[in-house]
Design goal:
This protein has 190 residues and is mainly α. The chain is globular and about 50 Å long. The chain has one domain.
Length: 190
């Protein structure tokens, strides 16, 4: 049989179907969390701003899917921005919570998180989209869960919501790796 691995996958389930299913899951997770878990109020709380940003990112991902290969680079940069911005929520929330007080070692932990996840976002655009997928998932599994009931300035509802969004977005990004790689090769050839 002279079929490529991609052709064999097509007989079982297409990559496009998996990507769409994962985007549906990310949409359901994001919508459910924003509608039922977020304690909406009018404020400049970074956690609420991040929840609102998720409500913009999910439809943007759908738009990039519908636009096809022309929008894939935008999608990759959007997700890199998402990855780089996630730890800023934690740092900003820390600064709001401790305004006027002396800084503690938590400040340096949050600042280190900003540097690590911004670096992963940069590498995810410049070297390999695997850095995006890994960075988003690691943010959820390591960063979010570490803050759960361990930090006085990040509400538990946010940690749970961010973890769920990170895992669903991370799975979606992992499913899109080949698409990102294919479009980056096309861009280099032209």
């Amino acid at each position: 049989m002279n079929a490529t691995p991609d052709a064999r996958i097509g007989h079982i389930i297409s990559v496009e179907t998996v990507q769409t299913a994962l985007l549906i899951i990310a949409s359901v997770v994001g919508t459910w969390l924003c509608l039922y878990r977020v304690p909406w109020q009018v404020s400049g709380d970074p956690c609420l701003v991040a929840a609102a940003a998720t409500m913009v990112i999910v439809p943007s991902l759908w738009l990039t899917r519908w636009r096809g290969l022309r929008a894939v680079n935008f999608e990759r940069h959007l997700l890199a921005g998402f990855l780089a911005a996630m730890p800023l929520v934690y740092l900003t929330r820390y600064l709001f919570a401790t305004a006027g007080q002396s800084t503690s070692s938590w400040f340096w932990v949050e600042a280190l998180g900003v540097l690590v996840f911004a670096a992963l976002a940069f590498l995810g655009v410049k070297l390999s989209p695997w850095f995006l997928a890994i960075g988003i998932v690691v943010h959820g599994l390591a960063w979010d869960t570490w803050h759960y009931r361990n930090s006085t300035y990040i509400p538990d509802w946010y940690v749970i919501a961010c973890l769920a969004v990170d895992l669903s977005f991370g799975a979606y990004v992992a499913a899109r790796i080949r698409t990102y790689q294919r479009t980056s090769h096309i861009g280099r050839e032209t």
